[in-house]
Structures are given as C-alpha cells and as structure tokens.
Amino acid sequence: MKSFDILDETKKKRILDAAINEFAENSYEQASTNRIVKSAQIGKGMLFHYFKTKQSLYEYLISHAIQIMEEFSVLYIDDSEPDFIERMKGSAKLKIGIYEQHPDLFHFIGQVMLEKESKVPATLAHRLHQMQLEGMARMFNGIDTEKFREDVDSDEILKLIGWSIEGYSQELLAKLDGQNFAELELEPYWKEFYAFLEMLKRIYYKQEV
Amino acid sequence: MKSFDILDETKKKRILDAAINEFAENSYEQASTNRIVKSAQIGKGMLFHYFKTKQSLYEYLISHAIQIMEEFSVLYIDDSEPDFIERMKGSAKLKIGIYEQHPDLFHFIGQVMLEKESKVPATLAHRLHQMQLEGMARMFNGIDTEKFREDVDSDEILKLIGWSIEGYSQELLAKLDGQNFAELELEPYWKEFYAFLEMLKRIYYKQEV
DNA sequence: CTTACTTCGACCAAGGTGGTCTATTTATAT
DNA sequence: ATATAAATAGACCACCTTGGTCGAAGTAAG
Description:
Distance between the termini of chain A: 62 Å
Helix content of chain A: 55-70%
CATH architecture of chain A: Orthogonal Bundle
CATH topology of chain A: Tetracycline Repressor, domain 2
Largest interface: A-B, 18 and 18 residues
CATH class of chain A: Mainly Alpha
Radius of gyration of chain A: 20 Å
Shape of chain A: elongated
Order of helices and strands of chain A: HHHHHHHHHH
Structural class of chain A: mainly alpha
Largest sheet of chain A: none
Oligomer: homodimer
Low-confidence stretches of chain A: none
C-alpha cells in the first residue's frame, strides 16, 4: 500500500472516488473492480498492484472513510456549545462539507453497515460502531435543556428537532439534486436554513416575555 | 400471463414475494432470475413460462405494486377527515398494513424510481408519478389549518408534523427490526404512537384555554 | 547500457446471465 | 382406460463478467 500512498493526489483521489462510488452503489460482492479501474482511468494491473486484493481495497476504503468522518467531526462540531440548535448548525456544516468533498461517503458507509459482517473485519466494525457512539456523544452531551419548553419531555424535543432538521435537509437536497455543489452559491440556502432554525426555536424553546 | 393468474394463491404469493424482494434489493440488471426461482421454489422454466422475459416480469411487478398501493390508499386514508394529524393516523396504518402483507413493496418501488428510465416504460413511469401526486392530494387536500398555532406558517407546520412522524416511525421500525410483524402484538405500539400524536398536537395546535 | 519501477490490458479459469428445450409428471376429457 | 393437453423441473446453451495474473512495453535514474 506504500506505492499507493505515494501517488499524486489527483490520481489518488480519482481512484478513491471511483472505488468509494462503486462500493457505495453495490454490495461488496456486486461491486466490480473492472468498473473501478475504468472509472478511475487506470489499468487493471495497477489496482491490484496498489491493493493486493479486492478485500484489502475494501478494508482500506472503510478505514479511509472513518478517518475522514472523524476529522470533519472534530473540525465542525463544537461540543462546548450548550445550545442544541446552534450545535446542529455545526452538524449541518459538517454534512455539507463532507458532501462537497466526498459525495458518496455517507452512501458508502451506509452500504458498509448493511454488509454481512463477514466482509467487514471485526476491528473495523468496532471502529465504525465506536465512531457512531462518539458522534452521538458529541451531538448530545452537555446540552442545556433549560431553554426547552416545559410541557414536553426534553428527550422528545431533542429527537423532534433532529427529525425536523433531517427532513428539511432531505427536502433541500432533493431540490438541489443533480446540481454541482462546488459551483453553487450556497449562502442564500444557509440564510434560509438559519431562518428555519429560528422557527424551530420559536416552536421548541421557552417563549421569552 | 393468464397461466400465472390462475395459480394457487400461495404459490403466486411465493413467486411475487421472491421477485419483488430480488428487484427491491438489486437494480434491474443486477437482479437475477436464478435467485428468484430458487427463492420461490419453482423451476427455471416456469418463470419464463408465466412471464416470457425478465423485462415483462419486471413490468408486471411494477403494475402489481401500483395496484396494491392504490387499494390500500383508498382503504386507509380518509380524505374527508379535516384534522391533519388524525388523517396521518390513517397514513401510518396504511404503511404498516402494506409492510405486514408485502414487506419489500416500498423498497421495491424506491428501487424502481432510481432505475434508469429505459427499463421502466413511459406508461408505467407515468402511472407511478400519478400515484405520487394523488397520494399527496389525499394527504393534504381539505386540511383544516385553523387548528394550527398562528405564529408559524401552516405549510411549514404540515411539513414539520410529517417529518416528525416519519422520524418516529423510522425509530420504531429500527427498534422492531428482525422481529416478525405477523406474530407481534402491535396494540401497545399504537398506544404509544397515539400519545406521540397527542404531543404533536400540543406542540403545533392552538392551545385550548 | 543496465537496473528498477511503473503502467497497461490481454488473458485466464470459474462462475453467473437470461432464456430454451426436452423429458417427465399430472390433470383433463373422452 | 386411453388419449391429449397442460404443468413442471432443471440440464443446457452461448455469452458475459468476475477477481486476479503476467509479460511486455515504457520511463527514469545511475
């Protein structure tokens, strides 16, 4: 794998993107190394020179994906922010950030989660699980629930706000489908999103008098 | 196809379930007729006797799925009910009802939607689209928005309630994963769900004084 | 000119593809 | 009981894709 780490960044990215995309859209078995090399525009031999087998390529990708997720997580999510909705802003920026730079990463990880364990070595499965737990912790630990309205259980409020933001994002993403993120002016969408969050505050926070 | 329609219901169901499952979990190209016949416990020849080609089987399934969805829709969704959340109860019952009797139907339709148009004939694509529109209409037409709190736009409230119920269902479904619906006592879960809906009313409806 | 490394893609055996066909069983009709 | 027709299984077909190999050509360095 040394030989792979040494490549120019652009070729490396082409290969990683191609491979992640292939494993995102197909199960391990159905994913095709032939399609990967074609999409990455390299010869068949090279892929098996860099990664000796399909399986080891797969494991490399999983590890790579975890690494990216963790980097972005510490970068974007400020777990000292006590206001839940403010913290969710960071989470949204994280998702968009990953989406811009690695469009298929979430899809890939989702596919990995569905995979029969046999293809995902125990240590990687463990790291994935750990990542999930830590992500939850970073999202929910130390939230100030005093701000929430008192006629609804605060755990419920956390979930409701989460689901609402999830729904909003899905709708937005569907609307922006096909368009190229890189050359898109996102600022107005953020503005709208912030307004949406303010609305959530109006709904779920105590009314200031 | 006549020959197929005549079969005993149990064998018919075995074949339909196997085929829908296969096309739900794989794209058209990747779906395998071999796996279908093995799973349905019939000989290879029979499948191609009933449906002459893979493509025509696929189209039969799509048509079949649309039919089921429409039946359930008129059965469960009462579009004369003016209270949105009450109407959503029907929608939830519809989903569970379909899920019980055809576990992979939603997944299948989702997969069909993703398919490159070429494999889905225009007329079926049109029927699918029409079904979606009518479903939306049955959900949202004639809703009494007077009940909603007035400090938030009522269209937003409709969406927020929808997303919240969606999130709740997903969470519940994840919790019940793997368990067999048929032999499951659902009543307590409905109870909890109704309580959840009452909470949504508290949040999104005008407070009665 | 030699040595070492990179790159490609033809090639391999193995196995899966949609679809056909024959042989046999089962049901129906006379 | 006999003849005819329908239902059924699965071996088989030609074709394609699979993960992986390997030799040859290209490139760079010493």
